[in-house]
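Limitations
The structure tokens in this dataset are predictions for the assembled complex, not deposited experimental models. Users should treat interface geometry with appropriate caution, especially where small molecules or nucleic acid strands are included. An illustrative entry is reproduced here so readers can see what is and is not provided.
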Amino acid sequence: MSGLTFTPSPGARPLSRMVRIHAAMETRLLLRNGEQVLLALVIPLLLLIGGARSGDVIDLGSGRRIDVLTPGILALAVMSTAFTSLAISTAFERRYGVLKRLGSSPLPRVGLLLGKVLSLITVIAVQLALVAVVGLGLGWRPTGGVVAGAAAALLVVLGAAAFASLGLLMAGSLRAEATLAAANLVYVVLLVAGAVLLPVSSYPDPMQPVVTLLPSGALAQGLREVASGAGLSLVHALVLAVWAALAAALTARTFRWE
Amino acid sequence: MTAAAVEVEDLVMRYGAKTAVDGLSLTVEAGSVTAILGPNGAGKTTTIETCEGYRTPQSGRVRVLGLDPVSQHRRLAPRVGVMLQAGGAWSAVRAVEMLDYVAALHQNPLPVAALAERLGLGSCGRTPYRRLSGGQQQRLGLALALVGRPDLVFLDEPTAGLDPQARRTTWSLVEDLRRDGVTVVLTTHYMDEAERLASYVYVVDHGRVLTSGTPQELTSARAQNIISFQAPAGLDTVRLTASLPPDCTVTERPPGNYQVDGLVTPQTLAAVTAWCAQVDVMPEHLSVAKPTLEDVFLDLTGRELRS
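Predicted assembly:
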């Protein structure tokens, strides 16, 4: 017999502590998942290195290749974590009853959401640091100093908010398998057709406005402009903010927890 | 203190055209072990999930520890432990890691290692959830319900699919919970579980309470004993009945299994064996037994509890 006694002594930890505990858990699980690491780090870094060394096989338009490529890969890294990873992991949390179980834990829904946000911020910060370091090593020369850095950070936050809201919209309404397929498909489509690898100017003229209105296009092009010293384009920021607001509002209405 | 831990009044829950819970009322005394007993589809899970705050009552009123499980969920959640019927963990999470995580959300958790050991999870602590056996997943679910030292736990079919040894582990745990003052509400379709563990039993079917009481009250409300025996199928039960005291009836269900209900006296038993001798049939497994909850249920509904 163990001396375990069950005398009641209930109570929840403070919200901020629960949020940190949850964020640590999600981050640990993400790092343990090989496919997620592939998506978050390996693919962006391979594309960055491969793209920088591909010579003129792929036309990246005017300007130095690495200066066009690196901001796009930064945008890709944000998209892979905030959209694809988040959509897939949340869809399976729903499917496996994790969300249901947490619904009866002391962690309230707002805490769950904040925990996910904190985990996203952590992972994205690591991704961006790695991509930036590799980009710099390959000759990327961003300009604009602190002001440009702050503008880039704003774009990243807006972009992550837009992608995360879209990811949760998908995870909360589709079945887990459908989310898995669709989130990967959208990733590939935006990678190719969403101004991630190529600058907007490389697309046919009629497509350019459409590409600029995509969240990937707005984030990647916005980062390219900021890093080249052209300053923060309000259009790109606004596009991302509108995507974030629309998707968040829809998610709040449609998200099914079970 | 005898305040009710759970009060359900006239609860009605419908899914489309189907009425899952149909005017169900029940009260759980603080410190008791209360079983909700009924066949699959009786409305047990819907009732318990409404108490857990997962569903809003469509009609009627539910209070848990005096609180509304939906609108006062945040106050209630730390005080209530919930064991779901299945699932509830990330597929890659390790068993003890999951337990540590839920423990860390609570102010005063149980010692995780001791709890895991008690539930026989010590050997699979580092196993990812998806590789745990069904029984291990179930025991982890129970551990997750208990780790926060709750006032009240809801256990939804806590031993369904467990092997006999694991069932006994769970039973002894429930007995310890009662000893330490934790209120337990459990659903089950095992009548032996309800008889053994529960201080009070609600028998439900079709979303309604059919009867309730202590296990002793329920079985002794049907004062008569039952004589049962096995013999070749197709005996003439009409003639057997005719040879017994007037208020006894004989039924054959399933074929080859005979049951004598009514006022069973030593004379009744003698009459049964005399009739068998007369037709030259050996009544095998002949027994005189107190009715079980299963018999009570069968009387009330005409159907088997386990099916």
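Some entries come with short summary sentences. For this one: The radius of gyration of chain A is 20 Å.
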